[in-house]
Structures are given as structure tokens and as C-alpha cells.
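User: Hey, my collaborator sent me this sequence without any context and asked if I could get a structure. I don't really work with proteins. Can you help?
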Amino acid sequence: MPVRPAGGPRSSFPVPGKPGRSQGRGPGKACLYKGASTMTETPFLDGKKILAVDDEQDIVDMLQELLGMCELVKASTFDEARELLESRDFDIAILDIMGVDGYRLLEIANRRNITAVMLTAHAFTPDNLVKSIKEGAASYLPKEEMGNIATFLNDILEAREKGRNTWEPWQERLPSSYFEKRWGAAWQDKDRDFWERFKAGIRERARASGKKESKE
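Assistant: No problem. I've predicted the 3D structure and written it out in C-alpha cell form, which is a compact way to encode the shape of the chain:
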């Protein structure tokens, strides 16, 4: 089903082919994910339990294809996702924002200590990015980046493993210039104080993590 990239015409989302499945899987082997143009090692994802929630069936089917190295459970409604979040354990929950009341699901995920990632097309706005951060999401991804979902999720799990802020690798892969091309150069002006605190918090967490690693 087509999705609408922010600020652009309605178009079909490119679907990676079967090479997107992990290669050479097995005990002790890193998983490989072939995205739109690159192949990235995703060792932290192998065998992880992932909940994918979206009201568009082709999106969850695509996520299942892209995350073949994981144990993926799909949900297409808020009620279905809520029941799964409240009754089962997941390493990560991927939550659509608009179609399934993603922020209410984020609240449930936070309460159950399940790492949540917001994935969106229609709620791709500066306000929703800020809201996702403030309400405790581990990442915020536009659906146009879904072809790289394995890399983003691997970054989150690796950051957690190393005691780093999950938004640190996110901002390296999606720098401010990425959003400037879509939202304009002044996209952070409305919440400039928030963004200054956000970046300072990431730097402080990185320094603390680095000191801990050097002691070990």
C-alpha cells in the first residue's frame, strides 16, 4: 500500500527483495541485512523478539521480510497490540503513530520496560519527533527509512548494551541536515531549548559511558 512521504506526492514505498533476508545465520554468527544499497552487520538483532504494529498490512509484512533474523509478532490494531504488550515480553516494539494510537501503546511499552520505536509517515513532523523523545521512545523513524530498519534497531540494542543513549546513533544516521531537507532550515527553532538540552544530554551520557568503559 502506498505511503505519503512528508511534503511530497503520494508514491509507492520501495520494497526490498528477498536478498533482504539475513545471510549465514547460525549460532555465533552475525546477521547480515541487505538494505536498499548497503549490507550491514546486525549481530545484536539475531533471535530478538520484536512486536511490529501498523494498520497497513503491507507495512508489517515488509517489516517481517526485513527482520527475518528476528522472532517477529505482528499486530494491526490498538487492542491487539495492547493485549500483546501487556501479556508478552518483547525486546523491541515498533509502533506506528497515527493508525494504531501509537503514543498510547508507547505508554504501555514504557510501563512494561519494552523498548519502543516510533515508525511513521503521516506523523512525520517536528512536533511528533519532539513528542516521541519526551514520551520515552528509543527512536523515531520515517517510513522512507524502513529499508534500513535492521540497522536502526541494531544501533538501539548496541547502545543499550554499552550504556549509551539510544538517540546517539540515531542522530548520527539522521543528522539535522536530513530533517532540514524535509522541514526547512528553521525546523528546530520552535523548540530550540529542548534541542540544546537533548544534545547536551547525549554528550554527557557518551562521556559517562566512555569513562566506564575505560575503567573496565
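In plain terms: The domain at 20-162 is CATH 3.40.50.2300 (Rossmann fold). You can pass these C-alpha cells on to your collaborator as they are.
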